């Protein structure tokens, strides 16, 4: 584990009592980096919140087991089946034989294209459901923005920590633990960019209806907001982030990068882009 002074990717840091973020990030030129986090609640019955990305599987598992003994893990809350959240699920299930997977019918189905999830280890936890994990009762709630229909956020009323999943996604100039480390412009621009990137359908929404959804999520009254693609939000940044979220339906859609952009990047890179590696021949 680490302190704020020694923030490093894949070194868990404490964000609340017995609650740790496992930080990772992807370089995302030309917009900086995107956080790719997971969370551990080390309560009476330890909970993993998402399972990290397959690109750093061994390091992610090592990071998680630096916080909690895998044999002690009792619950794995899978927010949704996207690979950045579920990519190490089978390894985690194998290393945590005492854990129950909190997921949904549709997530299991969506993952079946790649693996068979052992349904005897599953418990369905849909929007609005709660689970007693010994010393706290966790609440699943669909967040305002998401990029997968199975998504549920997780609220811990004991610490008032909210795992917002893909809501509040933002690019960052460099990986950081707390969103307060961004400038005001970086914070606003990041929320507007990340929100529209993750959920381009936000432009289609009735602003009034969406505001009611955001209000409902805000009424959880989280003390700390963490998420897969955002540094941790606290204090005034929370209300500000909710305000920015409410404004998203009124903002023009984010114009995607085009082939012209790619051509320009390739021209700048000139000969420094390595030739495509030969693919293994299909057998
Ligand atoms: Fe996602
Ligand atoms: Fe995600």
From TrEMBL:
Transmembrane segments: none annotated. Residues 35-196 form the Metallo-beta-lactamase domain. InterPro entries: Metallo-B-lactamas, RibonucZ/Hydroxyglut_hydro. This is MBL fold metallo-hydrolase. Gene3D superfamilies: Ribonuclease Z/Hydroxyacylglutathione hydrolase-like (3.60.15.10).
């Amino acid at each position: 584990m680490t302190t704020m002074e020694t923030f490093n990717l894949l070194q868990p840091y404490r964000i609340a009592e017995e609650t740790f973020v496992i930080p990772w990030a992807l370089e995302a030129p030309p917009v900086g980096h995107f956080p790719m986090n997971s969370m551990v609640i080390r309560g009476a019955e330890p909970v993993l919140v998402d399972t990290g990305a397959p690109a750093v599987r061994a390091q992610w598992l090592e990071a998680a087991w630096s916080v909690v003994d895998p044999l002690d893990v009792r619950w794995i809350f899978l927010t949704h089946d996207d690979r950045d959240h579920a990519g190490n699920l089978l390894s985690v299930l194998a290393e945590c034989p005492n854990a129950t997977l909190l997921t949904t019918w549709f997530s299991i189905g969506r993952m079946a294209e790649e693996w068979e999830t052992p349904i005897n280890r599953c418990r369905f936890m849909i929007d609005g459901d709660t689970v007693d994990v010994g010393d706290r009762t966790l609440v699943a709630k669909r967040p305002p923005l998401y990029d997968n229909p199975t998504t549920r956020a997780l609220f811990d009323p004991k610490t008032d920590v909210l795992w917002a999943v893909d809501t509040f996604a933002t690019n960052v100039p460099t990986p950081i633990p707390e969103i307060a480390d961004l400038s005001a412009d970086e914070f606003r621009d990041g929320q507007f960019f990340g929100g529209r990137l993750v959920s381009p359908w936000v432009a289609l929404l009735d602003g009034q209806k969406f505001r009611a959804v955001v209000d409902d999520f805000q009424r959880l009254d989280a003390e700390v907001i963490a998420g897969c693609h955002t540094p941790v939000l606290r204090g005034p940044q929370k209300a500000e982030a909710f305000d920015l979220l409410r404004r998203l339906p009124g903002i023009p859609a984010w114009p995607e990068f085009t082939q012209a952009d790619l051509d320009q990047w390739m021209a700048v890179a000139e000969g420094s882009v390595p030739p495509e590696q030969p693919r293994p021949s299909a057998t």
